[in-house]
Amino acid sequence: MSEPNEVKFRLPRCHGSVPRARAALRAKLGEWRAGRASAEDGELVLSELVTNAVRVPVPGDRLVGVRIECRGRGAFLRLEVSDAGEGRPEVRQPGELDKGGRGLLLVEALAHRWGVDERRAGIGKTVWAELLAPAADLTPAESVIVAESVRPGQCVRAWGAWHTVRAVWSERFASGGPAVVITLDDGGPALRLHAAEPLTVRTAPAAEGAPVIQS
Predict the structure, then answer these.
(1) What pLDDT is recorded for position 198?
(2) What is the rounded CA–CA span in Å between residue 150 and residue 167?
(3) How far is CA 182 from CA 52, 115, 172, 186, in A?
(4) Which of 15, 83, 84, 167 is 20 to 30 A distant from 122 in Cα terms?
């Protein structure tokens, strides 16, 4: 898989942030020469995620965080929107007369997969969605990174198998050294490692027999 293009920014909690997020995504995908289909679907998904984030009640004047990651010129697009609100968004089935409530239905329809993770630092959550171009393959390349760099949504190699990361946080060993705790989606025991310990990771679950996305 090609090296990712990535950008992070924050937005105020107002309706004007939705078109600003779309414009930022469109500009970056143009800069990265991503395909048109990725741009159109990505804008729709990002709009829904930011719309939900600015509506969530939060303590104080908290901002909305946005992270965009693009690989293979749009073959893989990951969108993350973080807010300080409580709870987890759920897909609703609105009635014919309901004017709203269809945002996550659209995300679910357009995204290859989506989910909600606890924020690595602070309060609140990160709602993320991954989009794949029609011809994109699902198996990413493996890489070795230090434990403190692991993030939710990646897959880590542990005990001879792949496990999807649910949450990651930092603490300290009794001796005072920096530690990282990694919880896994399959309900197995958490990993408690030195922050600098190397781990083999993938950016998405393995798809058996599928080749790697090419740039």
Answers:
(1) 92
(2) 9
(3) 27, 17, 13, 12
(4) 15
Q: Domain limits of the chain? A: 5-132, 143-202
How is residue 209 annotated by DSSP?
T
Task: Give the single-character DSSP code of 214.
Answer: -
Give the Cα separation of 54 and 56 in Å (integer). Answer: 6
The amino acid at residue 203 is T
Token pair recorded at residue 13: 């909690």
Model-wide pTM > 0.85: no
- The average confidence (pLDDT) of the chain is 81
Specify the DSSP class assigned to residue 185.
T
Q: What pLDDT does residue 48 have? A: 93
pLDDT digits (tens, 9 = 90+) for 157-182: 888 888 899 999 999 998 888 999 99
- The string over 33-47, giving b where at least 16 C-beta atoms fall within 10 Å of a residue's C-beta and e elsewhere, is ebbeebbebbbbbbb
Distance CA 193, CA 110 (A): 36
Q: How far apart are CA 166 and CA 151, in angstroms?
A: 8
Amino acid at 165: V
Name the phi and psi angles at 113, rounded to 5. -160, 160
What is the CATH T-level fold of the domain 5-132, as seen in this structure? Heat Shock Protein 90 (3.30.565)
33 contacts: CB under 8 Å, gap ≥ 6: 73
Q: Is the model's pLDDT at 207 over the cut of 50? A: no
So what's the pLDDT on residue 59?
76
